[in-house]
Known about the structure:
With about 260 residues, this protein is an alpha/beta fold. The protein has 11 helices and 8 strands.
Amino acid sequence: MHEQHYGKLDGPLMLFLxxxxxxxxxxxxxxxxxxxxxxxxxxxxxxxxxxREDSPFSIxxxxxxxxxxxxxxxxxxPVIIIGFSLGAQIAVQMVSLRPDLINxxxxxxxxxxxxxxxxxxxxxxxxxxxxxxxxxxxxKLQAKSLYLNSKHFDQYYxxxxxxxxxxxxxxxxxxxxxxxxxxxxxxxTKLLITVGEKEKAVMQQSAAVLxxxxxxxxxxxxxxxxxxxxxxxxxxFNLMIEQWLQTGQTPHNxxxxx
Length: 258
């Protein structure tokens, strides 16, 4: 798995896990903000970005690999994980497998309610729509839904064109099959669970499941945002993380999940 390292190498370890269909570049604004004080590690997940030739993607295998990497590079430092969407699912899996290793985790828009009725249609849907991926017009619509700006569009489009249909099927099937692991309740990790006010109902339900599934969880609904807070409002997102890590406080305009 390809990974990039930035910032203060003797500082606390901050691991960034990107969403499906993008890669580590989605965290550029976070790296700029946090690298002066943290050792920032940004992998490209299997079958994405510079890891597109890696072994077939799975959430559990990715979590196990990243846990082994943390054991090698953390050197007794605090460990913080920040995950979005597919990356947030991996973060959930990681804290469930190793409840003792990770100090804090920010779980953004993690689906933990399996969707078997949708999963069965994924191969057909991908086969029918895959040619559209090579259309710049279609890709621009997809990019807009993810809050990607023009600076990232060319890279997003290039990587989309490089993804194979079987890879996309695999990623979507993993995403829609993921359930909250049994070990999540026992994790000692301090957890911040976030979801956008404009996200689908199943995403908000998933956030509630996670917030109630561990005694160390705090869940918040971020107002006036859909799927992609860190890209849509990077300054807000960075301040939210910084404030929560330092004080445990959540944004004043967010709604607590109770």
